[in-house]
Design a protein that fits this description.
The chain is α/β, with parallel strands linked by helices. It has 11 helices and 10 strands. The termini are far apart.
């Protein structure tokens, strides 16, 4: 595979997932890094995380995907410092004129006014309540949330409105918000999904460079479950030829940690993610690359990815069906095949604002 013109050396991208910073698909020009012509040896700078701020006019994003269990999402951040090489959200950075590669994990966008905008949108007379999903594009509990607390502020708003929410994360920082989440859980207003891709700490560090270790995420499942918060484990993505042997061990470990349900998804390689993934495989697991890519093409009619509804997250064919059967049998054996209770939408109401006339009844 030809190396990218914007390949970044390993010592410059320590703790990062992607290997390059190629321009996004909407850019009219292709950027190429060139030497400045001076024969003076100098160390290239290590890539640092850069955060800009955005004041959104709206926050709730309505989606119409028939293979999803929700119809609206919010995203406190754009881009994700976790740096998971397989992240299907990477192509969204192209909309910002940035690279879905290293820019996605080093040039982030924070939305400090998100909670205020959310409050305003929930008060709109035309608003009709339904569960909001958070963490479907980028992780709300990525490292910068520790200082920014944008996700926590959004949770405070949802709690005040008694609004149901579904959270997906790999970040153990969610433990900080157990005080809010446990109160919401007591009123059937929240459920959490914790993603575990592998139990192999070495593979985890390469594939998900700034994500807490598998053992640490299992501990988070335990803490949430002990606080009465419904937790499901998400095996996502299952990588053929790399992590597919871990289905049963991951489900067992999650069950033992307190998870009460489980879901799965196959590796997805849309748009720019495919070449990023192949370059990563070539650097870290060249001996397994051919098998992984062969299985993906087998599941997608000869292509590395098929975006068709209901096939994009599971694939099709003999191998995909084998994975589905293994998962289903293991989930049933471990009593993880139950559905979490439907979230309560009936308690939703707008809390009074300072100066509002309060009702006597």
């Amino acid at each position: 595979m030809t190396r990218s013109d914007r390949y970044v050396a390993p010592d410059q991208r320590k703790g990062r997932g992607a290997l390059s910073r190629d321009s996004g698909r909407y850019e009219p020009f292709r950027r190429v890094d060139e030497a400045d012509g001076w024969d003076i040896p100098e160390d290239a700078p290590v890539l640092r995380t850069h955060v800009t701020e955005q004041r959104p006019r709206s926050l709730i994003n309505h989606v119409q995907s028939p293979d999803l269990s929700f119809d609206r999402t919010i995203n406190p951040y754009r881009g994700c410092e976790h740096g998971c090489i397989y992240c299907f959200a990477r192509p969204s950075h192209a909309w910002l004129g940035l690279s879905p590669g290293l820019d996605f994990e080093t040039r982030l966008v924070a939305r400090p006014d998100a909670a205020q905008v959310l409050d305003r949108e929930l008060r709109a007379k035309r608003y009709r309540v339904a569960p909001i999903a958070i963490g479907t594009n980028t992780d709300p509990y990525q490292p910068i949330e520790r200082d920014r607390e944008i996700m926590r502020d959004c949770l405070k708003v949802l709690h005040a409105f008694r609004h149901p929410v579904m959270i997906a994360t790999k970040g153990t920082l969610i433990e900080r918000d157990i005080d809010i989440l446990s109160e919401m859980a007591a009123n059937n207003l929240v459920r959490v999904g914790i993603t575990i891709t592998t139990l192999d700490a070495s593979l985890n560090r390469r594939m998900e460079p700034r994500v807490p270790s598998p053992a640490r995420r299992l501990a988070t499942i335990r803490r949430l479950a002990d606080a009465g918060i419904p937790v499901r484990v998400m095996l996502s993505p299952i990588v053929p030829g790399l992590t597919d042997s871990e289905i049963e061990p991951i489900l067992t470990a999650a069950r033992d940690a307190g998870a009460s349900a489980a879901t799965w998804a196959m590796l997805r390689l849309p748009l720019e993610v495919a070449p990023l993934w192949e370059a990563w495989m070539e650097e870290h697991y060249p001996d397994r690359k051919a098998r992984v890519m062969s299985k993906l093409r087998e599941m997608h009619g000869g292509k590395v990815y098929d975006a068709a509804w209901f096939k994009r997250t599971r694939g099709a064919g003999v191998y995909a069906e084998l994975i589905a059967q293994r998962f289903t049998k293991a989930r049933k054996r471990l009593d993880l095949d139950r559905d979490l209770p439907a979230l309560d939408c009936s308690a939703f109401r707008a809390p009074p604002r300072a100066g509002d006339q309060l009702s006597l009844f």
